[in-house]
Queue: 2 jobs
Job 1
Amino acid sequence: MPRREARSVTGSEQVGPYTLLRLERGGLDPGVPGQFFMLSPPGRLLPRPMSLCLAPRGELAFLIDPIGSGTRALAALATGDRVTVFGPLGKGFRLDLERPLIVGGGIGVAPFPYVSEQLGGPPAVLGFRTAHHAEAAALLPGADVVLDPTYVTEALPARHDVLACGPEPMLEAVRALEPTAQLAWEAPMACGYGACYGCVVEIDGALRRLCVEGPVLEAAA
Ligand SMILES: Cc1cc2nc3c(=O)[nH]c(=O)nc-3n(C[C@H](O)[C@H](O)[C@H](O)COP(=O)(O)OP(=O)(O)OC[C@H]3O[C@@H](n4cnc5c(N)ncnc54)[C@H](O)[C@@H]3O)c2cc1C
Ligand code: FES
């Protein structure tokens, strides 16, 4: 069940250009891999959606790409700071798979350390813009890594149950190759629980709230 709680920061580490923000877990349920939490950056009106990256004992950890004011404020949090967390929210990945394969692009690597732990370390292919960004591959030991201009879709082994997260063009390319893939999409989200309709996307020809129906959707949807 989702809960809203103020939690303390237990640590913050640089992983290439990203920040791994660790929070005390308290009574929060880590949920299913691929679900997300709304984190409230200090001084900002709206919370920001973040996938759970890792769930070590007593903690919840989030990998943050500081692309704007909210994510920069979250990345600047220090040990002992308090932050309001709400979740877990949305629909995560189905994990009842015969031959799982993780496919991540850029900050799309974020949900996969937790996915990998739950699946016992399946194969993974990760793509990054630069070697600096690819430092985040250390969160998924054993993953195959490609750098631009090589795309992850050029490195996909055949006949796997793909779980993918990354930029929209990457997800569209994965969808074209693997119609049974599960894809984690993004949309701007203000509430995260179906109230504001800020995250509406077209699914199966109908307008739906990604925070409720997703963020993980079947590629064929
Ligand atoms: C379900 C879900 C899970 C996410 N998980 C992570 C995660 O684990 N780590 C992470 O770093 N980020 C994640 N994101 C993206 C993150 O929420 C946004 O980058 C963040 O909200 C941007 O806030 P900001 O104030 O820093 O940037 P803003 O100043 O709000 O935006 C900066 C730029 O990014 C664009 N933008 C903002 N949010 C989105 C979005 N959701 N989709 C597309 N474009 C956007 C804006 O239009 C603007 O151009 C996730 C998003 C969703 C929906
Ligand atoms: S974020 Fe408010 S309805 Fe989806």
Job 2
Amino acid sequence: MALITFITSDNETKIVEGHSGSVMELAVNNKIKGIDGDCGGVCSCATCHVHVQPEQWDKVGTPNEMESDMLEFDDNVSKYSRLSCQMQVTDNLDGIILKVAK
Ligand code: FES
């Protein structure tokens, strides 16, 4: 089980509890504004883009090549960007704070 905090671009904070599946699915199921998951999680839309807190980067690890390629097309990409459909909800993510990209 993991408690995951989402901060939207409106600075709204929502903490949700996840058990399995992807972080994108968890966000969509909990109506997190700004995470749409348009492609269904196949890494081809970037509507699930989040920024990880630098000090928590080790919890999520680096994106694979396909994810990095997709992120390159996003104007708001940062060094700590991830596509949340490529992140699995595991106990390791407990306490993580994710800022929804604009
Ligand atoms: S849901 Fe489309 S890239 Fe993540």
